[in-house]
Each structure stands twice: as C-alpha cells, then as structure tokens.
Amino acid sequence: MDFGIIFANIGPAVEPDYAAALGQLAEENGFESIWTVEHVLVPADYTSEYPYSPTGKMPGPEESPIPDPLVWLTHVGAHTTRIKLATGVLILPQRNPLVLAKEVATLDVLSKGRVILGVGVGWLREEFDAIGVPFDERGPRTDESIEALRALWTQPESTFHGKFVDFERAKSFPKPAQGTVPIVIGGHTKPAARRAGRLGDGFFPARSSPEELTSLLEEMGRAAKEAGRDAGAIEVTAGGAMDVDGAKAYADLGVSRLVVPPLGFDLETLKQQLGNFADNVIAKVG
Q: Rounded to the nearest 5°, which phi and psi values hold at 113?
C-alpha cells in the first residue's frame, strides 16, 4: 500500500519555504504522493453546502489562502525528486481542457513523469456563477474534458468532437513524460463512482467509511463492467485510517493508497510526526 499527504497546499504550506520542506520531508519519510486542494475563489457568505463537514462550511475563514494547485506542485516538484505530484482534487469543469492539457503536460515533463491529475465536478455553485460556467452542466463537461485531455496527451494530431469541447487535428506539445497522465476521479457519490468506473484510471472517494466505500466500489465495478473495463485496474485512494489496523482494513477492501493530513503545522512537529507515521505505519504496511 502507498501513502500520500492530502490538504498539502493550505495552512503554513502556502509559504514557499514550508511548501518545499513539506515535500522533502514527505519524500524522505516514504510517502509516495502529495495531494493539493483547489478553489479559484470563495464567494463571501456562500450558501452551497460543503459536503465534507457537518456544518456545511469549509474549515477556516473564507479568507484562508488556497494556492493554485498546479503552480504549487511545480514549486514542490522543483525541490523534490521522487514524490508524485497530485491534485486532490482539481475542479475540472471550471477549466479549459486545452489550456489544462498544456499545463499538466508541462508539469509532467518538468517533474520527469510524476503527475497524477485528480479531478472533481465541484460543489460550490456561487464559484461556478462567478467564473461563468453553468453549475448544472458540470457533470457532462467533466466527462468530455477527461476524454479531450487524453486525446491531447496521446494523439500527434489530436481530435475530439463534443458538445462543450471541439477541436480537429490540434497539435499540443509537449506530451507528458509518462505518455499520458493518470486521471483519478474524486467524489463520494454514486455518480462519482460511476464516472470512475467509466472513465477513471483511479477513484478517490474523499469521505468514506469502510461501509460507504464498499457500496461505492460496487457501484464503480458495475459501471466499469458496463463500459467493458476492468474494475480491478482502477486504482483506489481513500482517507480515514491512521494506524496499521485501519490501513490493513482498507487494503482488504481494495484500497491501494491511503492519504493523511500533514500531521503538523510547524516544521519541527511535522518532521517528528511524519517520522513517527513512517516508522509505525508505512514501514509495517507499505
């Protein structure tokens, strides 16, 4: 089992030196990946319900900095050599897929093939309104963007025709260093599970007890079978376990990567806690 760090680009890690140190310490302690979150903006006094908190609100004040995930990962990638650079998640329907394909491929080349693109459909309607993307179209926009990204990364003269994305014989270079970039579908709902089954290289249900995860994986498997895909080849990432027994329980369900929060908000604590986790969990499970 692999281990990653989620919520990497918030809190003290918005500062360049801390961000670099976090990446280096994670790499030194055997973490396989580092995962960023995203919001382009947070509208003041939003009423949309945040799905990962009982309060319906994101943790922290609305003014809390959330650096752009790809720029932040580029900085961390320049200060590390092995750790994978992942978005967990990037809000795909808010992005132009042709521009995003170039940005992600460039980062993959510069990091020598370390990028994982985790994507989600988003939940903050007011953010979509401000950006000018119809909130109710975010599902089909996401599906088309996934297919368009793969075409742009893998075809010498890329072609894709859809309702929201349309291009013919587009030459988009550089291509990713790893040939393409794995796309992980984020979300804890049945539609997210079905999207992962149809289109994902991976599935990342961010909020999932073992019972919830079992149901979601069954949904993902059904969708994969209907699409003629091998559900067993879809890599599953989850959170929710902080010890050996918990990690093994998730592994038994088919989870191949567990993510944990940074475990510290100053460098000394971070160094100590990541080291403890490496000794007490990663060394015994990873």
A: 85, 40
Instruction: Tell me the H-state helices in 87-163.
Output: 97-110, 125-131, 138-154
What pLDDT digit, counting tens, does each position of 199-218 carry? 999 999 977 788 889 999 99
Distance from the Cα of residue 174 to its chain's centroid: 22
Q: Report d(CA 40, CA 62) in Å as an integer.
A: 12
Q: Which helix (H) or strand (E) holds 249?
A: helix 244-252
pLDDT at position 63: 94
**pLDDT at 34 > cutoff 80:** yes
Q: What is the residue-averaged pLDDT of the chain?
A: 96
Phi first, then psi, for residue 130 (nearest 5°) are -65, -35
Asked if the bond preceding 174 is cis, omega within 30° of 0, the reply is yes
Which has the closest alpha carbon to 84: 210, 237, 216?
237
Cα–Cα dist 61/244, whole Å? 34
